[in-house]
Amino acid sequence: MTQPDHDVAAHRADLVMPYGPGEVEIVAPPYRRDNPLQFRKNPLNRHGWTLVGKRVVMDFGMDAMVDRAAALTYYAVLSLAPTVLALYSIAVLLLPRDKEAVAELLAELVAMYVPKELRSDALAFLQNVVGSPSQSTVALIVSVLVSLLSASAYVRSFSRNANVIYGRVEGRRLPVIWLTMWLLTIVLVAGAVLLIFASLLRESLVTGVMRPIAEPLGLTQTVEYLTQIFLPVWGWVRIPVMVAVSVLLVALLYYFSPNVRPGRFRLLTLGSFFALLVVGVVWALFGLYLSTIGVRSAYGAFGIILALLVVLWAMNIVLLLGLKIDAEVLRAKELQMGLDSEHHIQAQPRAMDAVKFRLQQQRWADHSAREIKGRNA
């Protein structure tokens, strides 16, 4: 363990363990220094921005961003199957039993979101799925639980990658980190469902799904309000609402994933702005691919699936890069304050219980190594 100076040792010190094998670092208590992220008091100068750019480019390969994004993509794909099952169960529960109304609603949705070459096959598939019998309530409960578990695996993986980017191991206890990641997963999944709902909300969907439910309950006036007043306004505010939800989701992911307490919660950072902007461009290019090439390519529908996997992979690379930008901005601002952040970011950890346990394991392993060395001396 490195020897702290007497000034820091007089106060409670936080323990930070750099990622991988190494010694435990002692970080000065937060009340002993100002927040380096206070923009007005500590703006980055030209040399600071240069360091941020150098570190982001240099560590892109060293931190294996491409490989880590591939692992995140795997967990994202792993959660697709139960999510589709959950959507299927919801559709069976909510859609009206009138086959003609269902067929009309599905045809309109397919015409709106599916490329022309795939519309007949997609419509036949959806009609077969929605029209088939199912224990929808049980399937919905099971699929929601499994999808949350799969999505939680993605969030936990992102948390591990975030700690690598900040250069430290996890300090929170296992129950704490699991509870935190589960709560974060629930919020992220709810936000993702809200984004999907916002993109699909149309008059045909409201009348086709909600009217059969509203009539027995005497809520037809609510449906009329939605179709005549709310939806015309929603057409103007839909994109801003989706952007605001996306900003909030990325901010939560960046703030709570790593074992770092960088300061107050901020909705938008330089890294999150970069990530959101590039992710938006990536999905726009994917939409352009669907409208221009899509099934016309030699691979047909299989090519669309491959393109979707590439888009998810690129999206995860960009999310990791955005977090890396925030980490290096924090490092540069710490350096401007005179902190020794050349090799390790000095921000306060969220917890250090796991670091203490890891330190005990390290001492136990070092003791065994010394015994082996002594016996063979």
From TrEMBL:
It is found in: Cell membrane. Keywords: Cell membrane, Membrane, Transmembrane, Transmembrane helix. Pfam families: Virul_fac_BrkB. The keyword Cell membrane applies. The keyword rRNA-binding does not apply. InterPro entries: Virul_fac_BrkB. GO terms for cellular component: plasma membrane. Its main location: membrane. This is Ribonuclease BN-like family protein.
